Input
Amino acid sequence: MISTDRDRRGSPYDLFSARVRDNSDMQKKKTLIIVVSAPSGSGKTTIVDNLLEEMTALVRSKSYTTRAPRAREVNGEDYIFVSKEEFKTKVKEGEFLEYEENFGNCYGTSSLQVKEALSAGQDIILSIDVKGARRVKKAFPESISVFIMPPSREVLEERLKNRKTDEKKDVLLRLEEAEREIAARDEYDYLIVNDNLEKAVDELKSIIQAERENKS
Ligand code: ADP
Ligand code: 5GP
Output
């Protein structure tokens, strides 16, 4: 069932260099890495949550973040929430396939999660920003990238405000960053406009099904 209002269960580091590890042998031929990016507030989390209810053999990468949990976000479910120190240690230990700083917080994709999904023959979907998506594409050229667009800037602003999870200043930051992210949309393999949730979920599902057939 499609749910529009998802039941939603915080310094820079100078370590952000050489972030791509050599993982080229990790992706087995018959498994997919799907990378979804979208300006914050476009609906990518909602779309992916709905998709996961409908598709089997598909898991979501649970990123590590230093951001504070939003109301109803669950640790270990939506994200793995860690302190800045813990994040820094993970960076040093090389636990991230990629990591970035967004809106003053750090976000990173666990190499182990990706590796485990692929070894188990499960496709894995990563909801990450444009810079992270570029790094994943470099590490896994066969990964599939999908950009989700909001129907308009006005609708994006409305969704961010209605979500009621971010302070006014954070909404403004996210709207500014949206312009930069949208400018990168042509780098992606597929583009979906999230004007209708059900349609957007169906489109993402069709993309994955087509890519699965392509790979088999
Ligand atoms: P993101 O993960 O891209 O930051 P969210 O999934 O949190 O975005 O969605 C932002 C808000 O927009 C949420 O309140 C969500 O319920 C709503 N939303 C998502 N898709 C649609 C849609 N197609 N129509 C209306 N509202 C939507
Ligand atoms: P939010 O705070 O709204 O959940 O996420 C802010 C931004 O960080 C979004 O663009 C989201 O896609 C991105 N993001 C979430 N997890 C990761 C990650 O592991 N790596 C990267 N590079 N970006 C991430």
Remarks:
- The radius of gyration is 16 Å.
- Residues 4-6, 38, 40-46, 159, 162-163, 194, 196-197 surround adenosine-5'-diphosphate (ligand 1) (CB under 6 Å).
- Helices lie at 44-54, 84-92, 111-119, 130-139, 153-163, 168-182, 197-215.
- The first strand starts at residue 33 and ends at 37.
